[in-house]
Each structure stands twice: as structure tokens, then as C-alpha cells.
Amino acid sequence: MGPRAVFYGGVLIALVMVSLCAISLFQSRQDALERARETSRNVALIAERDIERNFELYALSLQAVVEGLVTPKVMALPPDLRRQLLFDRAATAKNLGSMLVLDASGNVIIDAGNDKPRTGNFADRDYFKAQRDSSNTGLYISAPFFSRLRNGSPSIALSRRVSHPDGTFAGIVLMAIDLEYFHDLFGGLSLGPHGAISLIAANGLMIMRQPYDPKVVGRDISRASTFRQFKAASEGSFSDTASIDGVRRLYYFKNFPHLPLIIMVAEAEPDIYAAWHRRALMMGSLMGAFALGFVALSFVLGTQLQRRLRAESELQLLARTDSLTGLHNRRTLGEILDHEWRRAQRMRSVFSLLFVDIDRFKAYNDTYGHQAGDDALAAVARCIGENIRRPADTAARYGGEEFIVVLPDTSESGASLIAEKIRAAISGLAIEHAGSEYGRVTASIGSASWTPNQDTDVTTVIKAADEALYNAKASGRNKVASCHEQKITPRDPALPARE
């Protein structure tokens, strides 16, 4: 695995971790929303059942009064007994205001709280008009109002129609309920610092809202977007911004099945997600720091791996390269020769090899010193490298002042041409050499070309090039001599070694 792969792999793993954290936090957010929705539903059901149970009892009490009013024996009783029988102590219940019987003109004729009725006319109230104008109204729940008999106490009224035997309007029975009942009921249901719970009439009038604000009671919200959703279904849940205070909340609502009322419970989104935000901030910060640390660690590891690979590459290059000349060393030359020879055998192609030797190099070292000799070797090596152009052509230092050039797929004439270019380039360096007959550093080159077969190996062509080199030396140095498989001139053992 390379350095880039380590770094990008680390980045990918960090992204996966961050993505998993994000998915987990998103799911946690959805869970918080679902818990809030379920809590709101439970709170709404508690309030609904309490109101329905009490209103059912109130409705039965009103119906009992209506039936008693049309019973002659009851109406013939003394006022105190009649009052006790008709109202059965219902008016003493907590949060109940007045229980009254009004005649067809709206005047109080029977008062549950007194044997002598209090004076008052309520023909202008909506609960009176609704019963007077229709015989099918049934139990009517009024709009909120301020009581005229109880020092302006905010209330709503439940009323039923009283009819003569012929069905004509005879008056109403009403029961006033203090709004304090709803205030106490809603106040005991915790919905967070910004939550709200409301009881709304089916026509859009606000009966009670917690948190309580006297200005909100009786407000018409029938045109609000939230109310339109209340009327669109029997119950449901949605998110919206309140028209009353501008806070965005998760609403749960339910229409009462038997009463013209809607219970609405709303938790503010900041309250719903408060704990989630703290957890998300902590987890997100930790995961972000961990991911950045992981990426940084991957970068450091990638950098270290890159340095190690570079060092290994340099070591490998040093192991395969002659440190003085920069050419391949003898060990690498052996691998190249073996590989190219086998390929030439498979392809039945011509394999050429040049043997380069610097003329009278020992004398040069003795005259100018070993440092000058090393510089001359490096200069000759550069000449050789600059004059072989194909990627497959290879030059190597064979030993001392000797070099070998491997030329795959090169004919004898092509090899001789390259050899001549190398010889001329070395001579053209014009490096002074007082011990040479040419007065400069020169080189002799032996060239051998071969078409490999199963009966020969690469040492054959090396020997042929070596023989050609000897012939170049013998013929006056600074020469190129060629040899191929049909023409080999064996070196005479009695001749002196080349220099």
C-alpha cells in the first residue's frame, strides 16, 4: 500500500466514522421528536378524559333540571325543597359558578345558590340566543365571558333549552364553569418552559391556554394555519409556528368525539431538542476531533511510509548502481544480460554487445592520481549513457575501466555505428593524457552481434566482444572492432594483456 493509499484510506475511514455519527445523531433527533409526539398525545388524552368526564356529569345535571321543570309535582314544592331537588347540590361543586333557570325573556327565575333568585337578564348572551333560535341545539358550550353575578369571573356556560309542551321556547337552564378549572388542569401538566396546551371551541374561539394570558382567552384563531389543520382531521400531529407568540412547536391535537371542543398540546422545538443539541454538540465535537486526529495520523503514517519507500528505493538503486559512474553495476548487468539473452532466444532476434575499455588507464592513474582517474571514469560513463537512446539499451560498469553496453534487437552494423559514436564522444572530451599516443583519454571498443540458439549462452557473446576489444587494442587503440558468430578471432595466449 502506497503513501497516498494510506492517507486517502485514513480520510475515507474518518468520513465513514463521521457519517455513522451523523446517522446516529439524526436517528437520535428523530427519536426525540417521536418521544415528544407521544408525550404530547398522552398529555392531551389525560386532559380530554378529565374534561369529558366532568362535562358529562354537568350535562346530566342540566338534563335533570330540564326534566324537573316540566314535572308539576316538582314545581309545586316549596322553593327551598324544589331548589334542592332540581340542583341536587350540584352548584356546590368545585369550579362551578352559577346554575340558573332563565325564562323566555332571559330573566333569572330559579337560582341554585339562593331561594330568592338573583336579579339579572342574560338574553344578550350567546348561550341564550343559540337555545332560543333553535330547538335542536342540545348541550351548548358558550364562548368565554365575564360573569355579571360573580364579580366578572371569567367563565363559560353549558346550557340546555326548556320548551313548553307544544315545543315553543320556555327558557334555558345554564351552568357556569369557572375557567380556573381549566387553568388548574393545564397547570398540572408539564410541557417544558415554552410548551403550550389549549382548549379551543370548534368555531375557533380560544377557551383556555396555558401559559395563561387573559388577552388570549376568547380570541378567534379560526384563520390561523394551525387551526385549519385542527379542522382537517379528527386528530394528528404537525410542526408549525404559533400565531399567538411566534414560537415554532410540535403540535398534537384531538377533536372531542362528543363535544364541540379541540384539545391542543404543543411542545416547543427548542425544548424538544435541548438535550439532543447538548448530546450532538458533545458527540459531534468528539467525533470531529477524532476524525481530524485520524486523518492527521494517516498523513503522518503516509509521510513516514513515503520516506521509507524512498529510502528503500534509494538503497535498491545503490545496490544496483555503480556509485562512481551512475551506471548499472556488474550484479545488475548479469540480470540484464540473462533477461535479454532469453528474450532474444524466444524472439530469434539479433543480440549485440559492446565492450568498452579506456586506453592506458593505469598510466593515467599513475600520472594524474586516482581522483583524476575517477573523474575520467565518470566522464566516460556519461558519454556512453548519452549515446544510447533506446529504453532497452543498457550500459554498465564491468570492472575497473571496462564498460559493457547491451543492445537488444540491434544488428552488427547498428552496433558498430553506436560504438563509433561512443568512441568519438570519449575522444572528443579532450581529457589530457600524457601517457597516451593520442595525448588525450581514448577508448577501444569491441562489438559482437549474435543470434542466440539453444547451444549457446550469453558468455559466448561476451567472449566474442572481448576478443573484438583485444583486436581493437592490438590494431592501435582508439578503435572499434567487430565480431559475430561466423567470425571469431581467438586471442593468442602469448599476446600481452590489453590496456
List the helices and strands and how they pair.
Blueprint: H1 3-69, H2 72-75, H3 79-87, E1 96-103, E2 108-111, H4 126-133, E3 140-141, E4 145-146, E5 154-163, E6 169-178, H5 180-187, E7 196-201, E8 206-210, H6 225-232, E9 235-241, E10 248-255, E11 261-268, H7 269-272, H8 274-320, H9 330-347, E12 351-358, H10 361-368, H11 370-386, E13 394-399, E14 402-408, H12 412-428, E15 443-450, H13 458-474, E16 480-484
Parallel strand pairs: 15-16
Antiparallel strand pairs: 1-2, 1-6, 3-5, 4-5, 5-6, 7-8, 7-11, 9-10, 10-11, 12-14, 12-15, 13-14
Helix pairs in contact: 1-8, 10-11
If you had to describe this structure to a student in words, what would you say it looks like?
Strands 1, 2, 3, 4, 5 and 6 form a six-stranded antiparallel sheet that branches. A five-stranded antiparallel sheet has the order 8-7-11-10-9, with helices on both faces. A five-stranded mixed sheet has the order 13-14-12-15-16, with helices on both faces. It starts with a helix and ends in a 15-residue tail after the last strand. It is an alpha+beta fold and about 500 residues long. The protein is rod-shaped. Helix 1 (about 5-70) packs antiparallel against helix 8 (about 275-320) and helix 10 (about 360-370) packs across helix 11 (about 370-385). Helix content is about 45%, strand content about 20%.
What's this, in brief?
The protein folds into three domains: 3-57 and 181-274, PAS domain (Beta-Lactamase), CATH 3.30.450; 70-178, 2-Layer Sandwich (Beta-Lactamase); 330-484, Reverse transcriptase/Diguanylate cyclase domain (Alpha-Beta Plaits), CATH 3.30.70.270.
